[in-house]
């Protein structure tokens, strides 16, 4: 069998370690996971109710058009249902967009370090990655514009950016949107937009109707607590949404995900509770880190990028032995940084206690 070089060279995405794996390997029962920017409150209760009610229909194929969820999103976002794409996680929408536009020799500009899935999906689909380094941990939109060349077909922006938690500001975003030629797709990944409080952070939704080359993607995995269900959505002008929709499988989103997302969207109380938990937890965590003299990147998300005075991998392993799963940022090219998401107050305290011990503070 002849395997394509792009696949031979592909290093799979390193996911956060599952809790069960740590229990199995280290025999630790009291494990906490702060590694995958998940919602520590669990799933939205209204999503769970809707999922339970949908269980008896599992012998049927899902509604491939996602009619009711699109209707609800359409009302919620004030866009036409035809402007909405549904995906098996927002990750699938990234892949669908790449499949729609990539062909051999075509280039995709994306930030680095950023969400590793972009780079890997481009590579898997035979495209060429052009990675634009961050500037002071922030996406360099001007630098990205300078890198545009005749082979550029897609630019990916992650706002706020994972793993730094930084945002781009409205003025530079608008300049960028105006400056990028229409032939280039701008994929704006807003997986963490629900946690942003800064009014100077652009909201992709406001730009969809005026930019025909813009695709905004969002997820139910974070603020709605449905990461295991796998559902996200994309927003674009009708033509663009239609092209991308042609690429998907007929039943790409399962029926429990459709029902759960619909329930979650109505769960305003859970959504607000999550935002409050993240806001207060982040404030407390950042304050404590500052008191410990530990550098961190000020975050607009539900996670914090933290600099450690030794190899991140060693800190990661030492924390594992204490039953705490965090993320070493080595695979993101940040050898002395860890990333930790905001947990429940007790989880945050336990994380800090363990970190103090590991770093001898
Ligand atoms: C920047 C970014 N985009 C997308 C996702 C994936 O979201 P989903 O679970 O909807 O596929 C994540 C998940 O961690 C992320 O960090």
Give a quick rundown of the structure.
The chain has 361 residues and is an alpha/beta fold. It has 2 domains: 5-43 and 269-358, Aspartate Aminotransferase, domain 1 (Alpha-Beta Complex); 45-266, Aspartate Aminotransferase, domain 2 (3-Layer(aba) Sandwich).
Question: Can you walk through the features of this model?
Answer:
This protein has helices spanning 5-8, 19-26, 45-54, 67-77, 90-101, 116-124, 141-146, 170-179, 238-245, 255-265, 268-291, 312-321, 345-358; strands at 32-33, 84-87, 107-112, 128-133, 152-158, 185-189, 214-219, 232-235, 296-297, 303-307, 324-325, 327-328, 337-341. The strands form 3 sheets. The protein has a 7-stranded mixed beta sheet with strand order 2-8-7-6-5-3-4, with helices on both faces. The chain contains 13 helices and 13 strands. The protein is an alpha/beta fold. Strand 3 (107-112), helix 6 (116-124) and strand 4 (128-133) form a beta-alpha-beta unit. Bound molecules: pyridoxal-5'-phosphate. Pyridoxal-5'-phosphate (PLP) binds at residues 37, 89-91, 115, 158, 162, 189, 191, 219, 221, 227, 232.
